[in-house]
Amino acid sequence: MATVTFEKVSKKFGSFTAVNDVSFDIPEGAFVCLLGPSGCGKTTTLRMIAGLENPTSGTIRMGGRDVTREAPRQRDVGMVFQDYALYPHMTLSENIAYPLKVRGQDKASRSERAKEVAERLQIGHLLERRPAEISGGQQQRSSVARALVHTPQVFLFDEPLSNLDAKLRLEARSFIKHLQKEVGVTAIYVTHDQSEAMALADTIAVMDKGEIVQMGPPLEVYRQPATTFVANFLGSPPMNLLAAVVEMEASPVITGEGFRLTLPKAWSKRLEAGQKVQLGVRPEHMLIADNSDSNAIHGSLYAVEPLGPESLVTLQVGDRLVTARLFGDEEPQLSGEVALRPDPDQLHLFRDSGELIR
Length: 358
Ligand code: ATP
Prior knowledge:
The protein is α+β, with helices and mostly antiparallel strands. 23% of the residues lie in helices and 35% in strands. The strands form 4 sheets. Strands 6-7-8-3-9-10 form a 6-stranded mixed β-sheet, sandwiched between helices. It has a 5-stranded antiparallel β-sheet with strand order 13-12-11-14-20. A 5-stranded antiparallel β-sheet has the order 15-19-16-17-18, with no helix packed on it. Helix 2 packs across helix 3 (107-120). The mean pLDDT is 93.
């Protein structure tokens, strides 16, 4: 297992900058998720770690060693990419055991290890088939199994579970997390699925337009998003964001369409009268209030979605939708005008430009 370091790494394709001046230092044994929308540079970052793409500038280190110009085979990485790249002429057993074969492990012990990993990913019954004889989701799990069968310096995963149905996806996800902790190999995992990143990572790096916009433990990034982009990307449903203007009274007040909220006094020092802000409030930090409540967000009921242990209640507030997550398995009985009261201690305010006001 090894540390992975980027020092001011950029990658250009012609005049287009896919990865822009990225630096990070991933400790040995960490599980890092690169999270961001399509095209933000996640895969390019991963391919540079694997050695499949050369950076235009900057340095990449593994375990302190400069690997920037090393070929993929010189870096001991286990990879799972979106295209499964299984060998078509080999059985699944041979495919999965292949990394052990090239490392000289004997046949009996490598088939046994391949079987063990395949069973954990629920493809143990398919070991004698060839890739063309199994489904896309099974191929994907086979390629995950092939990466996990041996213990490299670094695991690299690029959306390895994207083709699985919801149940298998959850099972494979916890298996990957369990195994990574067990073997302690540094893992870097690309996904655009925020719940996958939250569930797997010790550290999430949120990417936007080729840059890392925030990097930290999942709950820290969730609780303290540095920008409206991060706030809107993490959480399902994401944080509600509403335009507002600050007024200074005994305590600061923010007004926007459908609300006039008095903020705790502590905000006074950070805000000024007339300032334009974006109010951010997570769905789980609001409760149904009386329509007469002056410290609530008022709108008309748009939808109620009972999910089992919780329900989502969405209001139309001007041209925006505002969603609350209400815990409990009773379906809320609501209609017409509805008020949602945000927890005053759980409000986030962002500058008009998007950065968090700290
Ligand atoms: P996705 O989730 O859709 O896979 P991503 O975040 O992994 O997206 P990348 O594949 O890293 O994004 O691509 C980043 C940007 O670089 C994209 O705009 C893409 O079109 C561009 N890009 C990637 N590879 C090349 C290439 N070989 N030539 C030109 N442009 C490229």
